[in-house]
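Format is sequence with structure; example below:
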Amino acid sequence: MGFFLIVVLCVLAFAPLRSMAAPYAAMVIDARTGEVLHSRNADTRLHPASLTKMMTLYIAFEAVRNGEITLDTPVRITKKAAAEPPSKLGLRAGQTIAFRYLIRAAAVKSANDAATAIGIAISGSEAAFARRMTRTAKAMGMSRTTFKNAHGLTEAGHLSTARDMTTLGRHLLYDYPQYYNLFSRQSTHAGIKTVPNTNRRLLAAYKGADGIKTGYTRAAGFNLVASAKRKDERIIATVFGGKSGASRNAKVAELLDLGFRRAPSRAPIRKPARPAYAGNTGLGVGTQVASVSGAPKSSLRPVRRPSASTQVASAVAVTADENRGRINSAIAAAIAEADIAPTAPPVETSDTRPALRPDNLVLASTDSTKQPEPEQEVVTRLSSSGGHLWGVNVGRYTTRYEAEKVLLKTALSEMTTLEGTLRKVNQSARGFDATFQGMTREQADLACRRLQARNVTCFMIGPS
């Protein structure tokens, strides 16, 4: 009888432990418009885990944009940052590392030591940085989010919601598109070593997936904010409280599929309003960011060049081509600051124009004895395009699928110069040519040189 009573008591004592799974919440939106396509417990305040680092990175991008710090600023690692538990890059107290590598490690590896180092470098202390994170969240409309640290490890009061984290993911996509390619990398070099992406399984398995951020703690379960693009459609899906990485990924894939089914094929892009810049308010007089060496005292943002679109008499108020012209006119001056993660340094040559592809170069072909000659592509546009008659060819392939796959991979690896271009597959008797179109000659030249520096074969195409 006594033994039976002990067994019953044990069952009653441990029964609650089996039911202590992290609460589930989900949200799906059309990223173009922000329209909610699905939600469940979306406003329940839960532990965000490493989804927190999306805000850490957002503020890092904001700080670079506003001249508080540069991507090449050497950051001295504090004891606090070095002592953070895994996942971590392996930073040592007292060492210095370029700010860009901390960003890469936090975005791709989800490194806690790198995230803390980012916060201290920008705001002087993690507590001050967490207050800035919360202020920025409120400015975005994340009304049910409070941050207490930069990494997302469980802490009292450190809470968010599926809706708020979906909002943050959308802001990252539209407010800082020049950095968004980080989240799609299978791996990246983070200064002291190459680190793998914590989201690489979903990126590899789900068609169109290109980000954003994973998270896990015991209190949170397995979390993920994911984004995927197919043709003109883009969906963002968020899951809190997954039971495992595999089941979470499966659920996110299911939600993304749901989003693509419910979203219209065409919809206007209504970008969210960028939150007001607050900076490091509330630090107190005389506060020093001691961990940063050589931090700039004034903004290092490049001066915008005169827009080419001002020379074109347009019949409409603002067209997509004019917007792209204004944005791309500053690319050359902004490359040094905006490009966070080139896989290889640009190759300097005396001739700034890329060499044409040799006549005897064999592209993808089913017959290895045939050596097709490059065929010139002619891009025609209306005269109001502001001279966007040029493009870049990145190869000829035997199937349309191969060409489209190469275009997507290339666009993700070189978003800075290919932003806003038209990906087009041109079919001919010789195969399927993968091209980026809608560029000025200077933009096409710059894009091709940067691709060649990454060992991507390409050549410029232009009007005949």
Remarks:
- The CA atoms of residues 208 and 228 lie 5 Å apart.
- Residues 3-19, 282-300, 305-355, 357-386 have pLDDT under 50 and may be disordered.
